[in-house]
Sequence to fold (173 residues):
Amino acid sequence: MAKANSTSQVHEKGKGKKLQRFPQGARISKRPLLRPQIASAYAGRDQEKVVYLSSKSPFMSAFKRVQKLLKQVDKRAMQSILAHGSKKGKTRSKIAPDNKADEEVFVRATGKAIDKALNLALFIKNKSEYAIRMKTSTADAIDDIEDNTESANLPEIQIRQSPMIEIAVRLRS
Fold:
């Protein structure tokens, strides 16, 4: 009896809700996920560097994209060290760890691409010069509903949850 109350509370909070069934003539067309514009590799440290993976993304090219972004982070850090080092007389070893540790490159994947992202994270973790951090979440996806049966109670759009993983990669200091 106590179990029945606990499950009804879960459904009231919105977790575990199932999507509505549609009549025979209705079709669902999936929109691409909403995401911000990808920043340039040469953008400053205030821009978030993101690599999006799909299930068809080649493994090594995804790794090389992450590597290229991290090389730009390192290059930017060295330029600021040289600029500040000549003015203040500090050595590189005192400034370098703080500059590189702050900037991260994010690898994001949803759905079937999560497997590829996890394999990439494992590959990067085995490299000694990188440190990783992982976070799982969900992304809201919007589906358009095309109705050929002219039902009055059928919504035009549907919002569903899609699993997502975010892997933050940074240079080890």
